Amino acid sequence: MILRRRVLELDLVSTESWHMAGMSRQLRDQPIRRTFRNACFHPPPSAAAQAAPPQTLAHGWLAPAAVAVALAFAPLVLETYYQELVMKIMIYAIFALSLELLAGTTGQVSLGHAAFFGIGAYATVLAAPEYEPGNPLLLLALSMAAIAAYALFVGALSLRTREVYFIMVTLAFAQMAYFVFHNTPLGGGSDGMYLMLRPVLTIGGTPFLDFEQPRHLYFAALALLMLCYAFLALVLRSRFGHALAGIRINEGRMRAAGFQTYRYKLAAFVLAGALAGVAGFLYVAKNGVVNPELLSWHESGAVLMMIILGGLGSLRGAVIGAAAFVLLKELYSSEALLGPAIAARWQLTLGLSMIACVALLPKGLAGIGRRFTLKRSTP
Amino acid sequence: MSAPLMQATGLTRRFGGLVAVDAVSVDLHRGQVHAVIGTNGAGKSTLINLLSGEIAVSSGQIRLGGKDITRLSQPRRARSGVGRSYQRTTIFPALSVLENCRLAAQAWHQKPWTLWEGAKSCRASLDAAGAALDAAGLSDALHLTAGSMSHGKKRQLEIAMCLATAPQVLLLDEPLAGMGAEESERMLAMLERLRTDHAILLVEHDMDAVFRVADRITVMVNGAVIASGDPSAVRTNPEVQRAYLGEAHA
């Protein structure tokens, strides 16, 4: 027994390196081409994402920490325009991270994720007091609670279906939510609503965090992104996260072992919704306006593209994907760089880039770095 | 004889007009291997699916240790002691052998809210996984990537994952399928060891193996049981010989 214990302890230490070895083997054997459908529904067993253990805090914390530090100092050197752009990326990164939990980890690809984002944004505006700045913590909590309630309802129904049916049902619910805001006076109809005063957090009578000030807003977004990332890293490392990964790979097996997989999936669905609510809250705090287009299926498609672009199955993939998507869109729609004729057709150029990325980078942009480091380390 | 650990009576499952399993009754006793044989499409795998709760019965009753579990969902049934293996290997290919078993064992120690705790430091599930891998003879392969192993080893892992959930009843769906002679030998030796403290239902095509390990044999044809009893009685049953054993064992 003592010996057995020692063996088990040893393997805790060496598991990571073994996984890396297995991963490199699989990466070498992996065919270049992979279809979009595979990427969405059935990540093949050879995919490195499955070989890699869900990310842990100790494993690979360096790069995210470096990025966080860089982002913290960025406002010192960035012009207003670029600071806005980085803020936009951070908000979408939180949004993409929330979908990553649902699609990349649990394997439930939703095409209604924008409803979470949009409802979170609307909830923030509707809950904000009209003649004085609201308390951001309270508004954030309300926004997340509203989404959690909506996600519990939608998830309870839609998780009874699978794969393409799940996609269709989540899309249907999101379209319903879209039309509720578009066609009823609840949220100002198709014009949307304005947030009259941005929230201010006052501690002991003095304003501590004022969302009117771009820099305050910037650091609030950065802090929330770091919190979300760290929280999800913990989730993936925990028993809950391992069970979710098991459900993605083989749900039947998990049920046979004794996991009530429906509950796990529902918990992931609600959690993903609440985190998308964080992004929705920040969106409103930044832009001060909401409209039904936030809930549209274009937005759901965009966030799905972000995590595919970055690489399904890793947290950093979601962040990289969000950055790449926002930057590419910015680049392709820039008249100054590409001229009005091409800039007006940014969807076409962005779409072509997507296709190229899926065809050439089976593990997404996040896979590039890993690929090179492995190539160097394996003879 | 003591009361059966698992007892199914009059199990029926219809798929539309097709009766896949037709009023089948089986008793599983601790310390015994109960083999179910029959031609392809006889309803053997469906029977395992009914017993494990993967699909619901159309009619009939399943009792485990005297308790009615007919309406229990598969996960609940699994946690009350019903373990199964699959005809097609259903391991998690990209995970290590140990992690495959640890994840299965985690079903007993789920606590999904312990987010601050790493799954791989869950002592209880690691111990259970280690014990199951020992029992399945895989303790020297803990860190291999499951998908990279030979077919025979994967089948062993399939059983180990089942054992990791500490079942009392083992429902084994063709554990010998596609195995070489040596691997089959190892698997049969393992069955002999597991028999002592489990009730085992064995669905298998390899007749030599079945007659070697089975204490009781049930023969199914077109969803129905045509004979059931100890191996020698089944072997000499004329109806069985005609329907199934026919050419091979005449």
Structure in a nutshell:
Chain A is mainly alpha-helical and 379 residues long. Chain A has helices at residues 2-29, 36-40, 48-51, 62-77, 80-105, 113-127, 136-158, 163-183, 214-237, 239-249, 251-257, 261-287, 297-310, 315-332, 335-343, 346-360, 366-377, and strands at 193-194, 200-203, 206-210, 289-290. The longest helix of chain A is centred in the first third of the chain and has 28 residues, at 2-29.
Annotation keywords:
heterodimer, A: 379 residues, mainly alpha, ABC transporter involved in vitamin B12 uptake, BtuC, two-stranded antiparallel ribbon, two-stranded antiparallel sheet, 17 helices, 4 strands, disordered N terminus, B: 250 residues, alpha/beta, Rossmann fold, six-stranded mixed β-sheet, four-stranded antiparallel β-sheet, 10 strands, 24% strand
Topology:
The complex is a heterodimer of chains A (379) and B (250).
Chain A: H1 2-29, H2 36-40, H3 48-51, H4 62-77, H5 80-105, H6 113-127, H7 136-158, H8 163-183, E1 193-194, E2 200-203, E3 206-210, H9 214-237, H10 239-249, H11 251-257, H12 261-287, E4 289-290, H13 297-310, H14 315-332, H15 335-343, H16 346-360, H17 366-377
Antiparallel strand pairs in A: 1-4, 2-3
Helix pairs in contact in A: 4-9, 5-9, 5-12, 5-13, 5-14, 6-7, 6-8, 6-12, 7-12, 9-10, 9-12, 10-11, 10-12, 13-14, 14-16
Chain B: E1 6-15, E2 18-28, E3 33-38, H1 44-52, E4 59-64, E5 67-68, H2 74-79, E6 82-84, H3 97-105, H4 123-135, H5 151-164, E7 169-173, H6 181-195, E8 199-203, H7 207-213, E9 216-221, E10 224-229, H8 231-236, H9 238-245
Parallel strand pairs in B: 3-8, 3-9, 6-7, 7-8
Antiparallel strand pairs in B: 1-2, 1-4, 4-5, 9-10
Helix pairs in contact in B: 3-4, 3-5, 4-5
Explained architecture:
The complex is a heterodimer of chains A (379) and B (250). Chain A has 379 residues and is mostly helical. Chain A has a single domain, classed as ABC transporter involved in vitamin B12 uptake, BtuC, CATH 1.10.3470. Helices cover 73% and strands 3% of the residues of chain A. Chain A is built from 17 helices and four strands. Chain A has helices at residues 2-29, 36-40, 48-51, 62-77, 80-105, 113-127, 136-158, 163-183, 214-237, 239-249, 251-257, 261-287, 297-310, 315-332, 335-343, 346-360, 366-377; strands at 193-194, 200-203, 206-210, 289-290. In chain A, helix 4 packs antiparallel against helix 9 (214-237), helix 6 (113-127) packs antiparallel against helix 7 and helix 14 runs antiparallel to helix 16 (346-360). The longest helix of chain A is centred in the N-terminal third of the chain and has 28 residues, at 2-29. Residues 1-58 of chain A have low confidence and may be disordered. With 250 residues, chain B is of the alpha/beta class. Chain B has two domains: 1-81 and 169-183 and 198-250, P-loop containing nucleotide triphosphate hydrolases (Rossmann fold); 90-166, no CATH class. Chain B is built from nine helices and ten strands. Chain B has helices spanning 44-52, 74-79, 97-105, 123-135, 151-164, 181-195, 207-213, 231-236, 238-245; strands at 6-15, 18-28, 33-38, 59-64, 67-68, 82-84, 169-173, 199-203, 216-221, 224-229. Chain B has a six-stranded mixed beta sheet, with helices on both faces. The longest helix of chain B is centred in the last third of the chain and has 15 residues, at 181-195. The model of chain B has no long low-confidence stretch (mean pLDDT 87). The chains are: A mainly alpha (379), B alpha/beta (250). Chains A and B meet through helix 1, helix 9, helix 10, helix 11 and helix 12 of A and helix 2, helix 3, helix 4 and helix 5 of B.
